[in-house]
Amino acid sequence: MTTMPAADLLSQLRAIVGEKHVRVAAEDLAPFLAETRRLARGTAIAAVVPANTAEVSAVVKACHAAGVSFLAQGGNTGLVGGGVPHGGVVISLQRLKTIGPVDAVNAAITVEAGAVLAQVQQAAREAGFLYPLSLASEGSCTIGGNIASNAGGTAVLRYGNTRDLVLGLEVVLPDGAIWNGLSALRKDNAGYDLKHLFIGSEGTLGIVTKAVLKLFPLPKARATAFIGAAGPTEIVAFFARLRQRAGDRLTTFELIPRFGLEIVVRHAPGARDPLAARHASYALVELTSPEPNADLEALLLEVLEPALETGEIEDAAIAASDRQAKSFWHLRESLSEVQKHEGASIKHDVSVPISRVADFVIEAGAACETEMPGLRVCAFGHIGDGNIHFNLSQPVGMDAKAFLGEWHRFNRIVHDAVAKRGGSIAAEHGVGLFKRDELPHYKDPVALKLMETLKRALDPGNRLNPGKVIALGDDLPEFKPGA
Fold this sequence. Notes:
Layout: H1 6-17, E1 22-23, H2 26-29, E2 46-48, H3 53-66, E3 70-73, E4 89-92, E5 99-103, E6 108-112, H4 117-126, E7 129-130, H5 143-149, H6 156-159, E8 166-172, E9 178-181, H7 195-198, E10 207-214, E11 216-217, E12 221-229, H8 232-246, E13 250-257, H9 258-267, E14 281-289, H10 296-310, E15 315-318, H11 322-333, H12 335-338, E16 345-346, E17 349-351, H13 357-371, E18 376-382, E19 387-393, H14 400-404, H15 407-420, H16 439-442, H17 445-458
Parallel strand pairs: 2-4, 3-4
Antiparallel strand pairs: 1-2, 5-6, 6-10, 7-11, 8-9, 8-10, 12-14, 12-15, 13-14, 13-18, 16-19, 17-19, 18-19
Helix pairs in contact: 1-3, 8-10, 8-13, 13-15
């Protein structure tokens, strides 16, 4: 394919979206080039901001015809370098932010891909419904990015991942064709369920422009507790006990280690330890119900009391008010942000079967601490779906760049421990660029071949977000965070 001169392509793009929506100056491009944690920075000839699906399609067709690579960006809150451009054109979906009215009978809402998650949550609440996807970046991440990464968050235990919340999609394919799959059906077996090709594909197979999302009854009763225990083994045992009794009223069950709580209390404004004594592990637990008179506190106490008597847990506090519940949540929601105050972090987003979470955390933690004395393990996350954010904070006083230079060595230690337990090295953040070269070590070869086949079939020129998830002869360098 002959590559069109950049000036000619830029002229075409300006004709499609308007002069002011084609960004080429260095200061205008800068926000589109860097990964959230500034571990990776790319290049682009332009960032284009179309207003609707038709303009997205026209931009893609122009890039495709010109032989120029392109990728889509939403809120640019990704954590694995999947939205970092390496040449070509960035297609920002920030102007595609329409949030349609709620279909109350069908319990669904149609939104554009650039809509911010928190605004979709608010629109659902105002109509008396819940859109349950909830994560730390919900004030800036967008629905398109959530879909591309199959985002999880704190309510997967009750409502599932983003994949479970999508009824239909509209997608611009790598050649610019528009697939209209905006079905609001709960059942449709008329051929392949194509939406699942694009959910979790990290923007490598198509660009999501609209989605029909499931809604749920708005919770009318809530009980929130903060629990201390001797370790992750006891926390997992208590989770199993509570789930058996509470069923789908158990909405959230989050693991927090002692080190994690300490750094939140140290750095997050207004944070304090809710329990009188120190404990090795903690859990943030929440029950919800659409029944306004549901006595969820009594249900929690029914499970807590025998667990305290047997020593399965050591202490617990049940929130006596909404304010106290928010203070408990503040501890969990601040955990990702405060880690930067402790220096550089090597972060892993992994999953294992729930029954193997405790021994994974214990064994992988010991292996990492043995490998580098003084390293601080911060293993936290979603016990209810086996997703652990296994983060490693540098030893106090160590050079940050030198620590990040050990990224791949610690990846292998942690990911081998995950694989040993039948887990995944990419739970909810995706593969992107950062884990692309790790994937062949752990993914089934037949699965990798199928992924390559799909990519080549939909994007034979490898123009859409090349070099992410799988490498198809592109020349993107190995990710080196310490370089």
